[in-house]
Queue: 2 jobs
Job 1
Amino acid sequence: MQRRSLSTLLGAVVCAGLLTACSDTTSPFGRQAAATYSLQTVNGYRLPYSFGNQDGSTTFVQGDAYVLHDDDSYGEITNETVSDGYQSYNVTETETGTWSQNGNTINFRPTSSTRGSFSSYSGYLDNQGTMRISLNGTVSIYYAQ
């Protein structure tokens, strides 16, 4: 009887561990992703980061931040200046959606975006509170505030 109780207890512990692993909300470093992350660099360059557009104008990224909430929702806001060589104007882009964490990976699922992109994407969280997002060949580094 004692042998069966021990195996039942061991089985319950293993099942509990598996259930916990499937709904992991912290990285292996014990870091929870829910926080505010501010953009620091794009492709290794500090802000403002600039890139050319197809119409000949230039976009200057002035700032970008993600806010990951405890309820698994997130918001992103990007502040840019667009210049065509004659005049400049400010643009604010926004994105909202849901996020999940599995170990060091943060998965984003946009539900609203002024950019019109609703494709899911992922980021990586390290033990220093740095989030790395790589999209379409562009690597963005964010620091937790």
Job 2
Amino acid sequence: MAKTTTQNGTKKAGKMKTLIGIEAVEYARKNAKALSKYADPIEDAREGLSVEEAREIAREDPNLIHLDVEAPTRRMAKKMAKDKTVLDHIQECDG
């Protein structure tokens, strides 16, 4: 589990979510993260894949590519939804 810092400076474990395939690749691209690959009959599991390496593997089998990320808290999810609503409105006005 990931450790997060609370307001008083203590560490607490956060919940993790595993992204798979193209969702993992896109998240890694946008957030400058390295990806991982599950083992398959030809090759062992790998870590530290670049976005380009992961895309090549995902073309053959997207289910092999994964990325563990901290799952958003309810507060984070509400803020993300609010931010998305604001961004959607801005795009509507611009478009």
